[in-house]
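SEQUENCE-TO-STRUCTURE ENTRY
===========================
Question of interest: how does this chain fold, as expressed in backbone structure tokens?
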Amino acid sequence: MSIVIREGIKEDVPVMFELIKELALYENAPEQVTNTVEQMYIDGFGENPIFGSIVAEFEGKVVGLALYYYRYSTWKGKRLYLEDLIVSEKIRGKGLGEQLLEATIQKAKDTACTGVMWQVLDWNEPAINFYKKFGVRFDSEWLNVHLDF
């Protein structure tokens, strides 16, 4: 079994976008994906990148993605925010998710972050149980707030 975990590169964007659409379908919200491959090229690999990525390859094909960015907490300082951790459904159960999360945690440590943050849907029991293996803390007091344009 040949697994490679590495930094995402510009050439990975089309398959990253396919993984994002696969996640949206899993979360019953495919119509909510309004991003584009072209915008991801700009936002991730343009003059001022605003996100980073780590990909998982299985037998030479990208099948997993951790997409992250940095945020700042007035209480904690620099934090890495994991926007999405995705492993293609057809390849789950081979340890790629664990390796992607571990690589993301290491990226946070390597870039002097004070921690990693992310969200999980309250109905996604497989993901919740997966994250529990890492000794995470779930917030119950904070509500997500959105203002869309």
Summary: The chain is about 30% helix and 25% strand.
